[in-house]
Every structure is written in structure tokens, then in C-alpha cells.
Design goal:
69 residues, mainly alpha
């Protein structure tokens, strides 16, 4: 994976917006699929994947406990 991925959880990030999570999901889907912009016939699948990864990210960050912070 790309080394420039922004950390989205405390103690490294004070706040995480929906936009931050979607941007991270988009970066992940682009990396995995190999497409920066999908062809029209793949756009729906690409968009669904971004939304699913965004939802999984939100669930994960909402469930994490940071100790000692």
C-alpha cells in the first residue's frame, strides 16, 4: 500500500470527517482495482465498493478503544 496514507484514528488525528473516511476508501479502492477512474460499465461497482469501504471504516473507527490517550 501507499506510504502516504493519512492516519485516521486517535491519537494521531483529533477529528475524522466523513470526507476523510471517503477519501481513504477511494484511495484504497483505486489501489486495489488498479483504476484511478473506472470505465462507465464499472462505475457502479467501483462506487459501491467505495461506499462499502467507507462504511467499514466508520464502523471500525467507532469501535476502537485507544488506551492511555
Amino acid at each position: 500500500m501507499c506510504r502516504s496514507i493519512k492516519t485516521l484514528r486517535p491519537p494521531y488525528a483529533e477529528t475524522v470527517t466523513g470526507e476523510d473516511m471517503r477519501a481513504a476508501a477511494l484511495q484504497y479502492v483505486r489501489k486495489i482495482s488498479g483504476f484511478r477512474q473506472p470505465a462507465a460499465h464499472n462505475a457502479e461497482a467501483f462506487d459501491r465498493a467505495v461506499e462499502a469501504v467507507t462504511a467499514a471504516t466508520e464502523e471500525l473507527l467507532g469501535s476502537l478503544e485507544v488506551r492511555g490517550g
